Amino acid sequence: MFGGDTLTSHLTVDSLAPLSPNVSFCHPTDDDVDLEALVNDMNSSFESLYPQCSTQTEASPLLHNGQPHRAPPQSGSPLQPASPGHRVRRSQPMHILAVRRLQEEEQQLRTSSLPAIPNPFPELCSPTSSPVHSHGSLPQCQPSGKYIVKVFSEDGTGKVVEIPADMTARDLCQLLVYKSHCVDDNSWTLVEHHPLLGLDRCLEDHELVVQVQALMSSEGKFLFRKNYAKYEFFRNPLNFFPEQMVAWCQETNGSIPPSQLLQKFLNSSGCPEIQGFLYLKDVGRKSWKKLYVFLRRSGLYFSIKGMSKEPRHLQLLADLEDSNIFTVITGKKLHNAPTDFEFCIKPNKVRSDFKELRMMCAEDEQSRTCWMTAFRLLKYGILLYQNYKIPQQRKTLLSHFSTPMRSVSENSLVAMDFSGRIGRVIDNPVEAQSAALEEGHAWRKRSQRMNVLGSPGPLHPSSLSTVIHRTQLWFHGRITREESHKMIIQQGQVDGLFLLRDSQSNPKAFVLTMCHHQKIKHFQILPCEEDGQIFFSLDDGSTKFSDLIQLVEFYQLNRGVLPCKLKHPCTVVAL
């Protein structure tokens, strides 16, 4: 559109004269074009034309180079030119949309009528491919072959893997779990990371890794980490969707069971709506504005007049179909964000341009989690629920085979008691199990606390009870308070997520960092000496443990002084 004039296109159909004598077009003096009649006439013309072409093509032999053999015309049926009475006249100018519609229908008819074309180079096909290429045999976005993908862990180490084009994010995580000898608890995920933009996004399990990599910039990379909160909203939906942010809950006075709330999001015919105030960053500026925003299935909108929902007061902010939602990890420094709870919507076509990003800030972590979770549910719908149920179904299937089969050598083993002068066989199964448990707890107390000179040192770090915890995945050594916050946030702020670290204020103490109700809390673990032996306690000596492993095992089974039980260890694995 230039100068206010509508750009039009003239469709010339003189070349279609021999198609059909029934083709008729509007007279040049007419102003309006009957598109429906024109399309019907074109369809009938194509139907009369392509069956003949198809029959001739199938009957004609093919040469070795794939070109059709052109037989000479028969003498009895010379090619007749079109008569002047059947000549098609020039049509009226039509809009581009009408021309494109006709071209698309023509292409569909042409491809549906043509036969399969033999591949002239079958030796270049993969073993599983067919030597005949028909229309639509290879998906448009799924090219065949192998692709190289590099995945990084939290400590910066990377692993290069070769994957097929149809490998999903879940399949790649399973491959990395197998290669890295990790515990497969269905919480590992693949993260799309953009360091220059400061953005992170967990890939959905059904997304194709090759497609995501094709849309990433050169500085983007994949990270391999845990995310316990990926499907937590299916277990505790009310913790993710506050009643004041769900319009449907407000209309029914908040009396909605969690199951109906999820069904409303998963049902494609439903119309759930998330609403609330957000800080929006002006495009190309550093200023932020607080506006009332609505998230619907059709997109993200903001109101230009207070909290009004009238269509004339709503403006589209972002589309859900061709965009993804990211967590902003450098919002305060890079974008001068008003709060620490920043996220953004990034169109798929954008690579490294800040101007195309829609930056937003929430008031607290619960509000940000609600917006981001609702975005995923409205975009993917039932696919997320299927991704959530697949590991559970596999776990149920494998539970029938979870009982290990005892080998012949294991059947020949018996429990022995060597406490006396002569060893004896323990025949009583209860006594054998009790002896095994006692032996398992006694080995931790056998080591003498000796320093380098051989004299006993009750607080010396070389004792086993003070170093055995360093072999555990939940212990992260000398990390700062800010680094522990970052790890908890990255791996999902779910109840019971925890890690242990060295204390920065007391060199002999430790700190338990855990998450409860999306808030991170810290508890100091102090050593105490009793009868020449070192113990560790969280509650000023009321409950004492010989080492940190016993402490963690106790609070995994008992809440004690903590706000909740310890459930999920914060883990970092080197690839």
UniProtKB/TrEMBL annotation:
InterPro entries: BPS-dom, GRB/APBB1IP, Grb10_SH2, PH-like_dom_sf, PH_APBB1IP, PH_domain, RA_dom, SH2
Domain Ras-associating: 145-229
GO cellular component, one term: cytoplasm
Sequence segments annotated as region (Disordered): 59-89
BP GO annotations: insulin receptor signaling pathway; negative regulation of insulin receptor signaling pathway; negative regulation of Wnt signaling pathway
Primary site of residence: cytoplasm
Subcellular location: Cytoplasm
Domain PH: 271-380
UniProt KW Cytoplasm keyword: yes
Record PROSITE patterns: PH_DOMAIN, RA, SH2
Signal peptide: none
Record domain SH2: where: 474-570
A single MF term (Gene Ontology): insulin receptor binding
Protein family: Belongs to the GRB7/10/14 family.
Keyword Cytoplasm: yes
Any single Pfam family the record assigns to this protein: RA_2
Keywords for the protein's UniProt record, in alphabetical order: Cytoplasm, Phosphoprotein, SH2 domain
Domain of life where this protein originates: Eukaryota
Record protein name field: Growth factor receptor bound protein 10
